[in-house]
Specification:
It comes from Salinicoccus bachuensis. InterPro entries: UCP029876 (IPR008316). Helix 6 (88-117) crosses helix 7. The chain is 75% helix and 4% strand. It has 223 residues and is mainly alpha-helical.
Length: 223
């Protein structure tokens, strides 16, 4: 069966699950999605088999543990081992491109807006050292954020946590990285050394757009 047909059938079969079975299946589904490559025929085939096994178990009135065992995470890990793994370095690198690109776009578009209001020149003095450091640090923080988020998810997966506690953890991780970024950005703004040159702000925005597009192209590339 083609991958698209498997996806449609899996969505249809999922709706046949009772709430208890559906909750466990969806936890396993998310865990597999996070740890394996997207758009994988093998992944959809494994999920299809799992759904059919759970539906059969449900019809027989057995517990879902008769399929998965008592340790849901161990069972999910056994499935992940047989599937194409997600290249987390690749994902993090392209997300870093997007973060750097968006940072340049919003930062300099705001400056352009104020310059237009004041009828000021649309050029800026770019100090090379802090400019390059900001790009490198933004990319590094982006990669660190993705790895930390994935690690946190793998640790809390299948734990009986209330939604506010789990999402609160993810929020704290995001807020922590954002705070570190603000502190570093404040420090970089105080650096005024190294070669400098005048540059049109629209060219910097264009650079940001190119980096953002490259990042999205890399993420959504099926290869």
């Amino acid at each position: 069966m083609a991958e698209k047909d498997l996806i449609k059938e899996n969505n249809r079969l999922r709706e046949k699950l009772d709430p208890r079975y559906k909750k466990v299946y969806e936890d396993i589904l998310v865990y597999i999605r996070v740890n394996t490559s997207t758009r994988s025929h093998e992944t959809e085939a494994v999920l299809n088999t799992l759904l059919k096994q759970i539906i059969q178990t449900q019809r027989e009135g057995k517990s879902i543990e008769s399929v998965t065992g008592e340790d849901y995470k161990a069972y999910a890990d056994s499935l992940v081992k047989e599937l194409p793994r997600r290249n987390l370095w690749r994902l993090a690198a392209f997300l870093a491109l997007i973060l750097v690109g968006l940072n340049l776009i919003f930062d300099y578009m705001i400056q352009i807006l104020f310059r237009l209001i004041d009828s000021a020149a649309l050029t800026t003095t770019v100090v090379s050292i802090p400019f390059i450091l900001e790009i490198v640090i933004t990319a590094s923080l982006g990669i660190g954020f993705i790895y930390t988020l994935f690690y946190a998810f793998s640790q809390v997966a299948f734990k009986d946590w209330p939604a506010w506690k789990e999402y609160g953890l993810y929020f704290l991780i995001g807020a922590g990285f954002f705070l570190v970024y603000l502190l570093i950005d404040r420090f970089l703004a105080s650096i005024d050394s190294g070669p400098s040159f005048e540059m049109n702000m629209f060219l910097i925005v264009l650079l940001g757009i190119i980096l953002t597009i490259l990042g999205f192209m890399g993420i959504f590339n099926k290869k």
